[in-house]
Amino acid sequence: xxxxxxxxxxxxxxxxxxxxxxxxxxxxxxxxxxxxxxxxxxxxxxxxxxxxxxxxxxxxxxxxxxxxxxxxxxxxxxxxxxxxxxxxxxxxxxxxxxxxxxxxxxxxxxxxxxxxxxxxxxxxxxxxxxxxxxxxxxxxxxxxxxxxxxxxxxxxxxxxxxxxxxxxxxxxxxx
Amino acid sequence: xxxxxxxxxxxxxxxxxxxxxxxxxxxxxxxxxxxxxxxxxxxxxxxxxxxxxxxxxxxxxxxxxxxxxxxxxxxxxxxxxxxxxxxxxxxxxxxxxxxxxxxxxxxxxxxxxxxxxxxxxxxxxxxxxxxxxxxxxxxxxxxxxxxxxxxxxxxxxxxxxxxxxxxxxxxxxxxxxxxxxxxxxxxxxxxxxxxxxxxxxxxxxxxxxxxxxxxxxxxxxxxxxxxxxxxxxxxxxxxxxxxxxxxxxxxxxxxxxxxxxxxxxxxxxxxxxxxxxxxxxxxxxxxxxxxxxxxxxxxxxxxxxxxxxxxxxxxxxxxxxxxxxxxxxxxxxxxxxxxxxxxxxxxxxxxxxxxxxxxxxxxxxxxxxxxxxxxxxxxxxxxxxxxxxxxxxxxxxxxxxxxxxxxxxxxxxxxxxxxxxxxxxxxxxxxxxxxxxxxxxxxxxxxxxxxxxxxxxxxxxxxxxxxxxxxxxxxxxxxxxxxxxxxxxxxxxxxxxxxxxxxxxxxxxxxxxxxxxxxxxxxxxxxxxxxxxxxxxxxxxxxxxxxxxxxxxxxxxxxxxxxxxxxxxxxxxxxxxxxxxxxxxxxxxxxxxxxxxxxxxxxxxxxxxxxxxxxxxxxxxxxxxxxxxxxxxxxxxxxxxxxxxxxxxxxxxxxxxxxxxxxxxxxxxxxxxxxxxxxxxxxxxxxxxxxxxxxxxxxxxxxxxxxxxxxxxxxxxxxxxxxxxxxxxxxxxxxxxxxxxxxxxxxxxxxxxxxxxxxxxxxxxx
Lengths: 175, 766
Ligand code: FES
Ligand code: FES
Hints:
The complex is a heterodimer of chains A (175) and B (766). Chain A is an alpha+beta fold.
């Protein structure tokens, strides 16, 4: 990690624009940052803010491992430039638990063993939280379809659907 | 080693139940850190430059001046300027290296495969490193290369040097030619399995933290011991100066068995610059690592009119690189899967100008059993016998390859329970005889086999005065659930609540473990941890018995139970002592035991140990669009003792999903003009997504095995994939009447073929 919140100014020596000030609310805390115009939200979180919960599986919008919530909407942080988000509120997987209590989706993921290696998991969980807010999914097939932007190479899909369904139905943790 | 008769049996409060993962909370809250996520002061970022669109030749000129001049770039390494210390060992072979000369990045100007690393840019930020990498200009001199397996079949050869740990095909038995000539029912066909890349969701990364000449290395690896050994051997480092740590691994499936080139590059730069360096591969670069070799198989099966097998011939030609002879067990399965007097095997390699293939989930078996189980389905159809009935008729009671009995084999129960759950008896035999609307429905089945083994492993157990129990061994948890099963085993062995157990793994400073692979970790690390806990029990008991006025005086360890934090006489629980009191009386802060568990030599020589499964699949095929959906899978598995019902089930689910990918989606496609896997991203290399997976039902058939490992565990990492692709392919035949022998079965292949639908893998292979 860099000791300061400003990158050593990268660039190609051609006098391209330098860092741009932005204000972001990240997991409820307002952050005033200077970011290079090419820095993605994902790299900002992982490399500068030490919020490594959001994962990088492809950096191309193909896997969903980097899914975070921007103003409650699920987005791929690898496809989002940080400077586009001035004034926005970002919730990452680190910001879901409240007062030491897991978010119901997090708890359901543990209960249903909806992950193995855990690398796709923060993205799956943020995506599921976003999905529940959208209120579009009703059936298991709809959950499957609307969670299909989040790949899981460990193949935990059956359990992911069960976890999301449990929270959707409000059926408690069933421990 | 089999549990000695004097060892006390642990209570089973946790083992065999469905425990939540003890590392679950850290994973769902984003606290679990993976190799690229460990911070370091003044960290530098390395970006790998991948070689150009040729698979053989030389780098003629490499111009890094523009990259070096970019602001924020610290150094650019190429083969011309890489450090050339005398210690550099280019021949060291890692633990699972096949025979040959291992690839070493930046060794010289030679290009041996397309996309190989040719430079490393080290910069002060991730973005600058990636940008500067794009400024490097390279000219190559191309030499001829060959990447077409079908074309290279004629040059295939039997590998002269065997790969350690891989059984070559057994000797042929009987007279296959004659048996085939005389068989009233026979089938013969070729099958093709496409090259596949592992594609764990986490890309490979190493963070090398430099601290006054000592290195702490966070690596993506299926066993920190392998990385440490690699670094000490290749870079001549002193063992005490290197610690490799890998608490979490974001999937691996075999691609983390051999230390990969980012470890070399990050370490080289860190040592040279005396700075901490991280190198993370991009997703495309994951396709420049190892892969499951595409393989052409030819099978011929003969049977009598009742469907009793009289002959099996199983031949395979698999891809390898020009510099290593990668080998796996592809054809041997045909000698042990079923009872058959005449069997012939042939396993050859063909050299391609690619990187060396390597183990990918159920290496060899995923490929070979696919061929065998599809051929069995074809035989059932030809003989007019139900596919399940055919398997039962030819059930093997012993391993005919070695003549040894099995340590246990509950496959019959797998067939019975799986068929019942699936409703197999309601299957109508004729292809295309089941449909709903415009969807053709097909039911197929297959058998799965995987070797059950254990490896020597050491573990340590430490009991603290405050009651916490720590168990430690260097092994890995690549998503398999190692942390949790070790906690369960330790909690049961010492009779303490699982919440009191801390598990330490993924650290080379801990007692030695082998690589996590081959499905042997649960049996190996589990046995070692249990043995270490037994060591603790013994010490505690001797201390307790020696105390003045001890209620355990004159007792023997075999009669002592450990539960609820007490040691008690088995049939007289009133005579007991509190473990913490013993520690306190002796003034002990900690009590430690370290033990090594080894496989039983005798059992290894005189028995064959395998995991078995019966897989039943339902597919629905859109009659016009030929889109296949796998709507239902039942997988009944016999794998000895099941330690954790939750994580065990997840292992099988994951294997089945891998099998769905193998059957319908996955293929790394070589463009022979460039020698490169062209679909090198996960938009074009398709792995199953959520919507591709429907109901998967996992059954664990009860199986007791006192020989396979001290704790009776066989392992589950691979068995879920073995046979799955065949069950799906067979279901597609049943649905459509079309036999596609060429994986993956994509809609174009179902469309392309005429009504008989015979597509031979041989025709298209490569
Ligand atoms: S890392 Fe953003 S979608 Fe894959
Ligand atoms: S849990 Fe490993 S990729 Fe989903």
